[in-house]
Amino acid sequence: MRNNFDRQLRLLGSEMREMGALCEDAIALAAKALSEDSKELAAKVPPIASALDRKERDVENICLKLLLRQQPVAGDLRQISAALKMITDMERIGDQAEDVAEIVSSMGPGPKPETELLSSMARSVIQMVTSSVDAYVNQDMELAAEVISQDDRVDAYFEEVKKSLVEIIVREPDMGGYALDMLMTGKYFERIGDHATNIAEWVIYSVTGVHKSEELSAD
Q: Could you count the other beta carbons within 10 Å of the beta carbon of residue 92?
C-alpha cells in the first residue's frame, strides 16, 4: 500500500514540475514578445495558459485520488493539501503571462523604452517560480525562504518601473497610453512574484504544518 502511495506522490511531484515549466515558458515568451515587440510570440502564450488549465485539473485529480483512496496523515496530508493550493497560484501565473501577451498584441508601432527593465523583472519572477516548485518537490525550506526574500527585489523593480514611466509622461505627454500599458505589464509581473511567494509559503507549511497567515494571527 505504501509503495503505491509513494509512486503517486512521485507522480504528483513530476506533474508539479511540468506545471512549473509551463509557467516559466509562459512568462519567458510574454517577456520576449514584449522586448521584441512581437505579436507572433505573444500569440504563443494563450495555448500555454490553456495547457496550464488542463494541468491544474490533472494535478487536482491526482491529489483527490490520494486523499480519497490512500487516506494520508500528517506530513503526507500537508504535502497534498499544499499542492492543491499551489496549483491555483500557478494557474493564475499563466493567466497573468497571457495578460502581458494581450498588451503586446494590442500595442501599436513606435519606440518602446523600459522594456529591458521589465525583461529583468520577468527573469527574476521566472527564477522565483522555478525555485518555489523545486522547493516543493525537494521539501527544501531554505530554498522556499530564499524565494520569499526575492519578492522584495521584484517589488523594487516595480517601483523603478513606475518612477521611470512618470518621467516619460512628464517629458512626452503623448506617451501616456504606452506608459499605462507598461505599468500594467509591470503590475502583472509583480503579481507573478506574489504568486511564487505564495507557493513558497505553502512549501514551508507542507514541511512544518504552520502557514505564514497562522503566524501573523498568532502575533
A: 18
